[in-house]
Amino acid sequence: MDALTHLQGWKLEEAKARFSEVVRLAREVGPQRVTVYGQDAVVILSTEEYARLLQTTQESNLHRLLSISPLAKLDFMSQAEYSPVREVEL
User: Fold this and answer.
1) What is the pLDDT of residue 49?
2) Are 22 and 32 spatial neighbours (Cβ–Cβ below 8 Å)?
3) With b meaning 16 or more CB within 10 Å and e meaning fewer, what string describes 47-63?
4) Which H helix or E strand runs over 47?
5) Neighbouring C-alpha atoms within 13 Å toward the C-beta of 32
6) In whole angstroms, what is the distance from residue 73 CA to residue 66 CA?
7) What are the angstrom distances between the C-alpha of 8 and each of 25, 28, 41, 50, 55?
């Protein structure tokens, strides 16, 4: 299932003709999906929703933390030591 299918959908022509309503719904109800030739094109969302999404993408995560760490340059692929394996009867 497409992540956008649950959003209110508008054809581009309809969204242009009823732009005020699309904006109002984006602010009051939630993001509004606009399609062009039946394909998803854009999502219109409120500035509050955009700010919330932007903040979550800017929060630190483990990958970012490890990437900027002084330990990022360490080589963990050291020479492996192999020891003999003893045989076990089953």
Assistant:
1) 92
2) yes
3) eeeeeeeeeeeeeeeee
4) helix 47-58
5) 22
6) 10
7) 9, 12, 13, 17, 24
- What phi and psi values does residue 47 have, to the nearest 5 degrees? -65, -30
**What pTM was computed for the model?**
0.59
Q: Which of 15-19, 29-33, 45-49, 77-81 shows the lowest mean pLDDT across its residues?
A: 77-81
3-state SS record for 3-41: CCCCCEEEEHHHHHHCHHHHHHHHHHCCCEEEEECCEEE
Residue 59 is given by DSSP the state: S
| Strands 32-36 and 8-11, bridge-based pairing | parallel
